[in-house]
Amino acid sequence: MRCEGLCLSYPPTNQPTEMRPYLFTLLLFTLACTCARAQQLELFESFTNHAVLQRNVDHPMWGWAKPGKVVRVLFGDHKLSVKADKTGRWEVSLPPMGAGGPYKISVQAKPEAILLEDIYFGDVYLLSGQSNMEWRLTQSDPDGTRAKAIADPLIRELKVKKAYAGKPRTRLDIDENFSENWIVGSADGIKDFSAVGSYFAHYLREEVDVPIGLLHSSWGGSRIEPWMRPTADGMNPDLDEVEDMLAQAGIPGRKRFAEDFPGRNVPTEDEGQAKGWLNDKFDDASWPTMALPGFWEAAGYPNVDGVFYFRHTFSLTEAQAKGKATLRLGKIDDGDVTHVNGQRIGSMPNSYSQDRVYSLPAGTLRAGENTIAVQVTDGGGGGGFYSDAKTLKLETSAGNIALAGDWKFNIGRYAVGGNFNQMPVILYNAMIAPLAEYPLTGVLWYQGESNAGPGDNVQYAQLMKGLIKDWRDFFGQPDLPFYWVQLANFTAPPKSANEPGWAVLRQSQTAALELPRTGQAVITDIGEADDIHPRNKWEVGRRLSLHALKDLYNKDVVAASPQVSLARSINGRVIVNFSGIGGGLEVRPNAANDKRYPYLAEGFTVEDAQGKWHFASGLVDEDDNGVVLVVPPGITIKKVRYAWASNPERANLFSKEGLPVTPFEVGVE
Questions:
Q1: To which CATH superfamily is domain 123-238+422-551 assigned?
Q2: Is 368 exposed, middle or buried (0-12, 13-18, 19+ CB in 10 A)?
Q3: Most exposed of 73, 247, 500, 577 (fewest Cβ within 10 Å)?
Q4: pLDDT of residue 39
Q5: Structure pTM?
């Protein structure tokens, strides 16, 4: 039973009626909390201390109590009363409130009461998508400099736990790895917020004095279909098949478990540390082996999450064991606790994308046999070590020791998992459906990498529009603002003029701009060729914030990237015109461009009459809001593309406000 806020005994009937529960003594609070397990009064999981509630609306507030019980909600001068229905659910409507706080809300059902404190009314944004939305601020800010710079107690986040369900739920799982309450955006708190969300909120707060709540519900690696209802446009899932996949998910792993650990029961609670599996001299001779680096899914444990233990022994000379050393284990999905010779030398929970680099002080190692023991916890998707084999090594002053190869392993906790972030509907059921009726200011969406393959990338246009319409209908807000991030530049730059890659998915994302009250942040200039998680999340957040500042807060800003309007052939020249150029177009040369011609707009490709594609450049024509392409004489151009590659590194055309031109493909008139 949750105890959100203060759990209090209801005042005895002989006490003055004006006496509020939150004035009770610490003694009464303590006595009541000792009885919390028997408590029947509950609030929906988003109603916690430090919450940001949507301003200027009749805000529903609900929870559960004993059926038929009268529930009273005391909020300032407002006294609301309702009787729990036969299922125990109750709901009241808080009056519209302007931006501000802090407030207290007392919820009472004799003899129980819950007190919420430090409540603010402001603007609430739902954050969703895959790992680039999930990416925490600290992952791009390891020394905390940026967290300190943007720390703001009126930016707050509630992190929804990764979950899935075969049918829509009414309860929300909150990620207790962060907090069961809304987290206040102090320097220590904001570091674990969504980086995109925290910067978005920061740039809003620079312009408007409104508390910002970030309701964060994302899952790394997820496709778009798991977030949608089966009735959404573009969806036609076989729900019977989905249910069957859920039911069958654990069978292959259980079969492999029986082979590796004959006669042992599948563990549902982790007792590995208690049994000494991280200890120096533990006897692991009977343990099976697994080749690392690698995911355990590929080693015979598909659809398995939980806790695995890995042990590896190696020998050192006296020279290698002397002094300090550095242990490099690469990336571990999701979290680890690492011991060397029985000493805990590091731990990085929920850090699937970060390399484990641990410093070993002098005296940790010894001549002869040494042992590394690693506890790995995985909460969804792949689990284990997934860097290049050369990454796993011990660096000493007298040479390096390679650590890739066979490691002993055991399973501390076995949980049925799987690629649930790939299955239609089931993330919506668990991570969105419980939010029915929840008022929002807008939605921020960062997803698409998992749908960028052939075929999927074209269908994404319908799915993206379907998601927007579906969520607007679900939340009962037909004009709910919906802003998203277009995919960044990624992978090696193209070697030929016809390597579309992610460009097709980007065009599908752009197609959703047909819907009103939408906005797109184009970021093909700030990605990283070798990392699908570009570190520059502050500019992503800023570009998203421009849409909200313009649309919702009436600020005079240019929010949208320029878009192509048409391409024309005039007297043997091809002229490409644009809309939404703000103060005009300009070239911003980068390291990939030809430095001899810094005035050329690059990143264009053109298709000739024979269907062959060529690289092309252009000159900005400020009088015509366009670009005149420079093409070889005698070639008839049929189509023009811009930034049409997974990594269009030569693309250098921007609005004068610094927003990159939206990638496009257009026929020539």
A1: SGNH hydrolase (3.40.50.1110)
A2: exposed
A3: 247
A4: 56
A5: 0.84
Beta-bridged to residue 377, according to DSSP, are: 307, 335
Phi, psi of 85 (to 5 degrees): -75, -175
Question: 66 vs 22, which has greater pLDDT?
Answer: 66
Strands 626-630 and 78-83: unpaired
Q: Which of 335, 343, 354, 437 is nearest to 135 (CA)?
A: 354
Q: Which of 254, 196, 385, 363 is nearest to 309 (CA)?
A: 385
Fold of 6-121: Immunoglobulin-like (2.60.40)
Note the pLDDT tens digit of each residue in 407-448.
999 999 998 877 789 899 999 999 999 999 999 999 999 999
> Half-sphere exposure (CA, 13 Å, Cβ side) for 12?
3
| Full 3-state SS string of 378-432 | ECCCCCEECCCHHHCEEEECCEEEECCEEEEEEEEEEEECCCHHHCCCHHHHHHC
Helix (H) or strand (E) holding 543: helix 537-551
Average pLDDT in the chain: 92
Nearest Cα neighbor of 372 from 332, 421, 399 is 332
DSSP conformation letters of 32-91: HHHTGGG---EE-TT--TT-EEETTS-EEEEEE-STT-EEEEEETTEEEEEE--TTSEEE
User: Could you tell me the pLDDT band of residue 589, with boundaries at 50, 70 and 90?
Assistant: confident
Average pLDDT over residues 656-664: 98
Distance separating alpha carbons of residues 173 and 162, to the nearest angstrom: 8
Distance CA 270, CA 114 (A): 33
Determine contact, residues 432/225, Cβ cutoff 8 Å.
no
> To 5 degrees, how large is the angle CA 349–CA 355–CA 360?
85
Name the band, by pLDDT with cuts 50, 70 and 90, for residue 31: very low
Structure tokens at 586: 């300009």
Instruction: Round to whole Å and give the CA distance between 632 and 621.
Output: 19
pLDDT of residue 351: 84
**Check: CATH 2.60.120.260 for 264-416?**
yes
Strands in 246-296 per DSSP E = 289-292, 294-295
pLDDT in tens, 154-180: 999 999 999 999 999 999 999 988 898
Q: Note the helical H segments in 249-382.
A: 251-260, 318-321
Q: Is residue 463 exposed (0-12), middle (13-18) or buried (19+ Cβ within 10 Å)?
A: buried
Q: Rounded CA gap, 127 and 488, in Å?
A: 18
The residues spanned by each domain of the chain are: 6-121, 123-238+422-551, 264-416, 563-667
